[in-house]
What we know:
A: mainly alpha; two-stranded antiparallel sheet; flat; B: mainly alpha; two-stranded antiparallel ribbon
Amino acid sequence: MQINIKDLLSGAVFVSFGVFYGVISIRTLDVGAANAMGPGYFPLVLCVVLLVLGAIVGVRSFSATEAVHIGKVAWRPIICIALACFTFGASVRAIGLFPGIFLATFIASVSSAEIGLTRAAMISGAIAAFCTIVFSFGVGLPIPAFGPLFTF
Amino acid sequence: MDIFNNLGLGFSVAGSLVNLLYCFAGVMLGTIIGILPGIGPVATVAMLLPLTYGLEPTTSLIMLAGIYYGSQYGGSTTAILINLPGEASSAVTSIDGYKMALKGLAGKALAVAALSSFFAGSVSTLLIAAIAGPLAALALSFGSAEYFSLMVVGLVSSIALASGSILKAIAMIALGLLLGLTGSDLYTGAARFTFGQVELLDGLDFVAIAVGLFGVSEILRNLETSGVGRSVIGRVKGLWPTRGDFSRMLGPSVRGTAIGSMLGILPGGGALLSSFVAYNVEKNISKNSAEFGHGALEGVAAPEAANNAGAQTSFIPMLSLGIPSNAVMALMIGAMIIQGIVPGPGVIQKNPELFWGLIASMWIGNVMLVILNLPLVGLWVRLMRVPYWILFPSIVAFCCIGTYSIASSSISVYLIAISGVVGYFLIKIECEPAPFVLGFILGPLLEEYLRRTMILSGGDFWIFLQRPLSAFLLLVAAIVLFFVSRPYVARRRKGIFVDEQ
C-alpha cells in the first residue's frame, strides 16, 4: 500500500479545520434557516464542504500510485522567524522602532547557521538604522524610535 | 465628435502644471507604497487625505488616484521579485512572475508587467471616455443575485490558479472563504471566530496573511537549503522583452484589458476579480498553457493588464453612481464630499472638467509610471540580487513594520508569523495559497450577497436561475469549471488506460 503523505496530511488539515470551526459555529453562533440565514449558516456549510473534501483526499491518499514523502523541513528558520515576528509585535510598543527592528532582524538572522553572530549584529544594526530613518523620521509613522522603556 | 471634445477638455485640465506636479507626486508615492510590503494604498490615501483639503478638487483627486494605480505597479514589482504581492490583485502576478525571476528573467517580467499595465491604462482611458454613461447604467442592473453568481464565477476561476489537485484547490477555496468570515457578522453583529480578541472584529488582516503566506513562507523555503551567501534570484539574462516576447504579450494584454475593464465597472469588488479571471482565461486559451505556473510570460501580462484596467474603470461607478468599488474609492468619495462635490449621476454633467480631467490624468499617470518604472527595473533587479543573508532579514523587518503600522496592531504581526509557518507547511503538502487568497477576499462578499438574496427571495434558492443575468453567470461558472477540470480528468483517464495496458 503506497501512501501519499502529502495528501494524507492535507486531508487531515482540512478535516481538522472543518471540525474545529464547525463545532464553534454550531455551539456559539445562530445557524438559522435558508430564508433567514444566521451568522453560523454559511460557515457551517463551508465546514461540511471541508470535511467531505478532506475525507476524500485523505482516503484517496492510501491508494496512491507511488509513495510520496515530504522534503526537508527548515525547523530552525521557522522557529527563528516566528520568534522574530512575535518579539517585534510584543515589544515594539514598549521599546520603540530601533530596538524592535534590531531584535527582530537579529533573531531572524540566526535562522541560518552560516551567518556569524557578528554579521547578524551588523546587518541588524544597519537595517534598524535604515528603517528608523525612513519610517520614523521620513514617512512619519507613529512609532517612536526609542520607546518608553528607554526614556529616563 | 463628443469624445474628442471631452478628452480635449480633460487633457487641458490635466495638463496644467499644478495637476502634472501632483500627478507625479501621486504616482511616485504610489509606486513606493506598492513596493513596500504591508503599507498599501488605503492607508496612504487615508493618511494623505487631510493634505488635499487645501487643493482644488480635481488636483486632489488626481493625486489620490495616482497613488492608487501607482500602487498597482509597485505591488507587482515585489510580487515578481520576492513573491510578496503588495496588493491583493498582485497575488496572481506572483504566480508566474516570481517563477520567471527565479529563472533569471526578472527584468523581463517587470518590463512585461509595466508595459501591459500601460497598454491597459491607455485603452481603458479611451474606453471610459467612450462608454462611461451607458456602462454605468448596465452596472445598475446588477442585483445581489447577480453579484453572488459573479463571485461564484470568480471562485471557480481561482481553481485554475492551482496547478495541482482540483479537490485540494476547492478545499483551499473553502478554507479561505471560512477564514475570511472572521470578524463581526454584517447582519447581526455577532462576533465570529474572533476567540475573544477585539482586534479580530474587523476580520483577519488580509495584508498580514498575504505577507506571511507568500513572503515569509518563501523565505522559509529558501532557508531550507544552505547557501545564504548567494542571491535567490537567478542571474539576470536580458532586461528587455524580445520581439517574440512582444507578440506573445499582445493577446493576453488585450484580453486582460477587456476583462479588467468589464469587471472594474461593477461596484463591489469587480476589479479584484479581474486579475484572477484574466489569468484563468489566458491559461485556457493560450498555446503555452503548460508553462503557466512555471514562469509563463502570458501569466504576467494578462493579470497585470486586467488589474490596471480594473483599477481605472472602477472610478466609473464611483464618479457616475457614487458607489465605491473598494476602500480607496470610498476615501475618494469622502475627499469629493469635503470639497463640496456630491458624487452621483450628475457629476459627469455638472463637473465635466473634474471627470474628464481625472480620466486624462490617469493616462498621463500611466505614462509617468512607465517612464519611472522601466529604467528602475535594472535597479530593482540589482537590489534583489543582494546576498540572501542581507535580503531576508530586511524583508522580515519591512513586513513587520508595514503590517504593524496599518493599525498599530501587534496581532497583525503575530499573524504574519502564523500564516508564514502555516503557509510553509501547506505548500509543502501541496495545498496552494492562491485559491485560498481569493476565497479569503471573496468570503464575506459572497456570504453578504447570498444572505441578501435569500432574504429578498424568502429562502428560495431557485432565484439564482430565475433571474436571467444571474443564470447566465452561473452558466459561465459551469463552463469554466468544465474547462478547468478537463486536463485533470484527461490525466486520470490516461492513467487508467496506461494501467489497463
